[in-house]
Amino acid sequence: MTAVTDQDHTEHADHPGEGTVQDDRSVSQDRRRLDGRGLPEGGDAGEAPGAVHRKGDPSEGSARGGHTEEPEAGAERAGPDGRVEGELRGGPDGRSGVPEGHAGSTPRAGERSAPETRGAEPGTGAGDDVRARGGDDARARGRQDLRARGGDQEPVRGADDARARGRDDVRARGAEAASSGDDGPDVPDGSSPPWDDGLIARRVNENGGAAEPAVVLESRTGVGGGPQGVAPLAYDGPLRSRLDALRELVGLSRARLDSRTLAEAGRVLDEAAARRKLSGQHTVVAIAGATGSGKSQLFNALAGVTISETGVRRPTTAAPIACSWSDGGASLIERLGIPPRLRRRPVQSPESEEQLRGLVLVDLPDHDSAALQHREQVDRVLRLVDAVIWVVDPEKYADAVLHERYLRPMAGHAEVMFVVLNQTDRLPGEAADLVLDDLRRLLDEDGIALSEYGEPGATVLALSALTGDGVGELREALGQFVGERGAAARRISADVDAAACGLRPVYSAGRRTGLSEQAREEFSARLADAVGATAAGEAAERAWLRNANRACGTPWLRLWRWFQDRSEPPTGRLPLRAQADAEATARQRVEHAVRTVAEQASDGLPAAWAQAVREAAVRGAQGLPEALDGLAARAGTLFPSRPPRPGWWPAAVLVQASMTLLQVVGGLWLVAQIAGVMAPNLGVPVLLMVAGIVGGPLVEWSCRMAARGPARRYGQEAERRLREAAAGCGRARVLDPVAAELLRYREVREQYVRVTGVGAAPR
Amino acid sequence: MLQNSPEIGHSSHVVTLDVRPQLLDALSALRDRVAAARFPLPLAGAPRARANRDELLAQLDDYLVPRLRQPEAPLLAVVGGSTGAGKSTLVNSLVGRRVSEAGVLRPTTRTPVLVCHPEDQHWFSGMRVLPDLTRVWTPHQDVGDDLLLPDENPARVLRIETADTLPPGLALLDAPDVDSLVADNRVLAAELICAADIWVMVTTAARYADAVPWHMLRTAKEYDATFVTVLDRVPHQVVAEVSRQYGALLTKAGLGDVPRFTVPELPESAWGGGLLPATAVAPLRSWLVHHVQDPGARQHAMGRTVYGILDSLTSRMPELAGATAQQYAAALRLTAAVDGAYDSEHARVRGRLQAGAVLAGDALKRWRAFPLDCTAGELLDALVESLSSLIVCAVTAADERIGDAWRREPAADADGLADPDATRESAEHRIGLAVRRWRRELEEYAEEEVRGLERSPAPDPELIAALVATALLGGRRARPAGEGLAERLGAHGALRLRDRGGRLLAEHVDGVLHAERERRLAPLDGLDVHAEPQAELIAALSLLQKER
Question: A726 in contact with B at a CB cutoff of 8 Å?
Fold first, then answer.
């Protein structure tokens, strides 16, 4: 056992250390995982010995189990003063319990108060805890004497439930130690008010005899039955994976969404984790309803004894009252924040004990009276219980506040819902059925699935708590419901459904999302426009063609052109052309291209992700024009101002020259004949000359034809290079970050689909 | 069966001494102002303001104005309360006959029922009060049958019954539930209560601590209306205790002096839909009869409600005025966001133009190739395209900026206010049109200039236009274009052409951006949110106060 303890200790101690190194998200995840895993182990280890010990002093066994761990843990959290005291009290035997006590309390503290503050300022952490559970402080006080007597000598851990209690005691004690040490400036709330509660609690414990014998009973069976006593709740596979997915989802999207959006999901996770640590053998059922509907009456009817005050005074019940049919549910009740003085036991009768075993019934105040704090309490408790019995009466069953404020939003929780029409004794004869049908109709309109013909859904019953009519039926239904032990998981599952449904607008896109190939191409084309690829290509083609013409043209034509060029003033050409331009890229086109592509990419995405995509695009676009400028400049140097000449040019030039030569020779020959130097022979020189005159333009024309292909290729090559360079630049700077962001969204979306579950259609 | 005669309501010419015509005029002016108040922007306070306005309007139309015009009309007592409080049973018992359907299914009363003495029927069959409810009139017998025509909206009709057991001068109205699950019923109930001279609030032993009825009671107190409360369906074992506790709650709320009647729960009152014995409702009945028949009491009851409502205007009108002011402020903020975005984009466009940003990319490449490898037409095309892309970019950037600013404004969620996507393509189209028009005009200028030139050979007008455009759009980089222009046209002509072209350009750019801004603001202008209603409301109120 010591080995287990040690292992436990190191595990818990290590994690926070790692956590500080890692980023924030993984810390919280680790911590949650830690909650889930660390505790059951400790619980298993501690179970048997705790039970053995409690045999001797049953009513206080749980307290003692906790108290052994208490001094060190309490002192650590309360500060130096507390520490001294704790060690004094702990004694040599008590020390072996220390690591486990410390380890056990760590994750819970991390969950309740902010992790950072817990590490840095133990004192305030403890203060928070004390404020949260003043009642437990009182309990601890009540048992102080016992603890002083002999608690220290037992290095024994209780079962899980006992540990939970013990830990709370630890917390309270720690604060107490601190306050007694230095008058507790940091725990102002924890010291005085609970004292009164403590007195009352003690008195109730002494007077309300029902509670203590029952504890005896329970711990005895616990000894015999072993794990059957108070095993923590276990979720089934699908639910667990959905919770994991939700946790993952929250972690993934924390950077993108504001905390308010995620608050509900976080709350569900916290509640699921908290509920999981508590007893799975118990089902907490709240009785809720309007004022005067007879909640307390029904509560009493189920308990078989008048526990909750009933009356004509409205509103009657002001604070929730709990009633537990079997033991081990104390921590559950504690979670609801119901102080010990408001915890009761039903009347002892074997058959009701058997039927409703594991039921923890909570009587709530009304939700519709002028007393606002009642409604707040109802809202708070309703979030924590496993199931709800809605009590309505013939007068109020169609109240807007019930349906609009509670039933409609909770429609997804139909499976853990009973709707009970009370006070049927006020209805004559068949009217009860009419009203019940009408109630069913209204519930149906609220979107609540009704459990008819064995389908899952809310159970609707009519009864009269006053006469007892139909109470048996409810008891039977409740007994079956509680016996299934599935309510807590179903409730959590419905919570997850509701949270997923609430998150739907931030995760789910209306249509297919992503960047289409067409959009990418458009973007590249726009960038190419911005650097002027088309124009550059055309210019290059024409320049080549011009050069070819110039090279292969007849000399006469060249002469004429040269003359014309001289007469016309030059324009934008040279000499300024040689220098590189400062802003060769059209900034507005780049900006527009980026905006368009960002819009296309974020089209249909939920707002937060669309924003992220746009930001990624804009971030990538910074410096893009400059990069494109550089690109264009490099491409310019790659293409020298004089295009390369193909191999056949010299031949063409030679032919052209020979044609000119032919003309000249023919001409000279003719002149010579005219001058009489040579024998008159008209045929040959004319032929030569005509061949030269016709051949020159012919060669020029054919050269031009031949040059067209290479010129086009050359221009296209120039255009392609620019285009590709611009596209590559755009891809690296804009498209890739956008795609990464889209991928992240897709991941989250998949996670979200996992949260909604395969079978559960999102409502 | 169905009577709908709006003319009868305006036949009155009787004005009593204490109601001067000026007061009525001031009141109807105020009523018009209230009716004209609009809250189209979805601000946080807008739904409340709308509800307040509707309520105030209902009170003015259904009660205050008709009452002041005709003080001699019968008193109307509206029976209101939660669902299942037994309102219909109470009305039936007061009348002594089943006039309104009672039952166990909730909500029972979906059609309001007005009961009056046969002699008084003409007061209600017209549209004097509750003008927007259709009157349905049934002869006495078959109450249980389906009264509604199939296509009639049950919430918007008023059934009128006559019973001679009621004293003349008193009318009872059985209203639907104030907290009904049917939202229309709730609205209607509130409206009906606004029309009452006497409010009869019914609650029950199980409900007397409910929040909704208490809200109603507080409202009644706020308006200082004449009202009585009825604690209905009290099981007789606990009559004393419940009654005492209810009294204590009322006293605590400052309503201790309100007449309070207790009606026990009897088997008849429950679910048979039957009538309570006359003794059970006798005190309430005699109280009502007394207030109807005793002139002093009648005057008092009526006057209290009337003046209560008039007094409540003092706080309600400024509230409405405040809400309109909020609307106006929100509209101003939205407009300012648009103006700011377009102003800054306009400035940016001007800066970019001056820096020669248009002569970049394609246009720059063309210019570099000009004139050897590029024609003047191509250069002009490239320039025009580049210019239009600059303006499109500015407009979309402004839209984005507006989107960002508006996202923080709740008022921007109003219908049809933000849909830039729908107009994006057409914006490009419009800008393209404007820029091409500029090009055409520029070419005309160039032609004019060339024609006026007595040099031969005359330069090509298109070439001149291309050079001018380059010089205008190219900034420093296009200096050679300016030089070329001067060579061809002479320094004077070149300068003149550049000036004209520059003015034309500025004109077109301003025009395009202005048009886009107006287009963006049009839906907001369409909502018609102005500063005036605030002042008008306050002015109407002060006029009314002066006339009282």
Answer: no
**B373:A293 CB<8 A:** no
Selection from A158, A16, A157, A171 nearest residue A99 by Cα: A157
Q: What is the pLDDT of residue A63?
A: 37
- Residues 6 or more apart whose CB falls under 8 angstroms from that of A308 comprise A295, A296, A299, A300, A317, A321, A363
CB contact under 8 A, A543 and B484: no
Asked if A536 is an interface residue toward chain B (Cβ–Cβ < 8 A), one would say yes
Question: Cα separation of B105 and A461, whole Å?
Answer: 17
**pLDDT at position A186, please?**
39
User: Averaging pLDDT over each range in A75-79, A495-499, A542-546, which range is the top one?
Assistant: A495-499
For A434, name the nearest residue in chain B, comparing CA atoms only. Answer: B105
Say yes or no for a CB contact (<8 Å) between B362 and A585: no
Secondary structure of A83-107 as H, E, C letters = HHHHHHHHHHHHHCCHHHHHHHHHH
Q: How many CB atoms lie within 10 A of CB B7?
A: 8
Q: In angstroms, what CA-CA distances link B229 with B159, B167, B250, B265?
A: 24, 21, 10, 16
Q: Tokens in use for A123?
A: 């004192």
- The predicted pLDDT at position A681 comes to 76
Predicted ipTM? 0.76
Question: Is some CB atom of chain B closer than 8 A to the CB atom of A454?
Answer: no
High-pLDDT (> 70) share of chain A, %: 64
Residue A633 forms contact with B (CB below 8 Å): no
- Which helix (H) or strand (E) element contains residue B10? none
Nearest residue, CB atoms, A426 vs list B270, B396, B470: B270
For residue A103, pLDDT beyond 90: no
Averaged pLDDT for residues A545-563: 77
Instruction: Fill in the DSSP letter of residue B62.
Output: I
Q: Name every chain A residue with its beta carbon within 8 A of the beta carbon of B272.
A: 428
Nearest beta carbon to residue B480 from set A530, A532, A571: A571
Q: Cβ of B365 and A428 within 8 Å?
A: no
Beta strand B170-174 with B113-116: parallel, antiparallel or unpaired? antiparallel
Maximal C-alpha separation, chain B: 122
Three-state SS for B287-310 is HHHHHHHCHHHHHHHHHHHHHHHH
Q: Which two tokens stand for residue A219?
A: 């711990």
Give tens-digit pLDDT for A329-373. Answer: 788 888 888 888 888 777 777 776 777 888 888 888 888 877 788
Question: Within 10 A of B462 (CB to CB), how many other CB atoms are there?
Answer: 17
Query: Regarding predicted confidence, which is higher, B284 or A355?
Result: B284
Answer for the pair A627, A731: CB distance below 8 angstroms, yes or no: no
C-alpha angle B312-B315-B320 in degrees, rounded to nearest 5: 110
Task: Establish, for the pair of chains A and B, how many residue pairs have beta carbons separated by less than 8 Å.
Answer: 204
Q: What percent of chain B has pLDDT over 90?
A: 19
Euclidean distance between CA atoms A579 and A651, whole angstroms: 35
- What's the DSSP call for residue A740? H
Contact A395 B84 (CB under 8 A): yes
Considering only residues B385 and A173, tell me which one the structure prediction assigns the higher pLDDT.
B385
At B283, give phi and psi (nearest 5°).
Answer: -60, -45
Per-residue pLDDT band at A305 (split at 50, 70, 90): confident
Picking from B83, B87, B88, B105 by the largest number of A CB atoms within 10 A of its own CB, the best residue to mutate is B105
The neighbouring-strand residues paired with A324 are: A360
Shortest Cα distance, chain B CAs vs residue A213, angstroms = 38
Looking up tokens 């007005």, which residue turns up? B114
The answer to whether A318 faces chain B, any CB pair under 8 Å, is no
Task: Kindly state whether A438 is in contact with chain B, defined as any CB-CB distance less than 8 angstroms.
Answer: yes
Contact B245 A314 (CB under 8 A): yes
CB–CB contact B104 A290 (8 Å): no
The per-residue pLDDT for B177 is 80
